[in-house]
Amino acid sequence: MSYAIIGFGKIGHALARAFARRGIEVLVATTRDPESFASDAAAIGPGIIPTKLADAVKADVIFLAVRFASHADVAKALPSWQGKIIVDVTNAYGTPPEEMDGLPPAQFVARAFPGGRLVKCFNHLGATVLGQHPAVHGGRRVVFLSSDDDGAAAEIGALAEKLGFAPIELGGLADGGLLVQGRGDSWGRLIFKDLVKFD
C-alpha cells in the first residue's frame, strides 16, 4: 500500500510527522515544485518524500490536506480515481451550504473524485494537536472516521491504528461526516474534541 499527502501546510506537516514516527514512507506534494519544500520534508524524516502532484496521485491512499476550495483542483489531476482511497482532511467552514448543492461537505468532495472511495478522517483535530504523539497518559488519541464504503473505512481505520491513533467509526458521510465537519458558520459537534481511548 502506498501513501501520499496532497497539501503540505500545517495539517500536511502534522500527518507527515505521524507517518515518520512509525517509519512509514509517504509522498508529499503541493502545486509547487518539490524542491521548494524538500528541506521541510527532510526535517521531518527520511521517509517523507517530496514529489510532484502528478506522481503523488499514483498512490493507493491519498490524504487531501488542502483548503476545502482547492479539492476540485486536486481532483482534476486524474480523469478517474477508480480504486483509490481519498482521505478527506478538509473543513468547509466559511463555505455556504448552498455552494455545495445542499450536500454534506464530505459528499460534495466525494463527487469530485469519480471512482474514488472517500473516507472522512483526521480533520477534527487542529494541526498542533494532530501533530503531537498520539500516545497520551497510557491511552491513544481518538480520530473519527466516516465513509459510505465500509472496506475503505476499515483500511483507514487499520492505518490509523498503525499510526498509533484510536479510530472510532461514525457511519456514513451524510450522518457521521457532519459530526466532524465545519460548514457555513458552524462546526460539527465533534470538531476539536481531543479525546483519548484507554484499552
From TrEMBL:
GO terms for molecular function: oxidoreductase activity. Residues 3-91 form the Pyrroline-5-carboxylate reductase catalytic N-terminal domain. Keywords: Oxidoreductase. InterPro entries: NAD(P)-bd_dom_sf, P5C_Rdtase_cat_N, STEAP_metalloreductase. This is Putative polyketide synthase. The lineage of its organism: Bacteria, Pseudomonadati, Pseudomonadota, Betaproteobacteria, Burkholderiales.
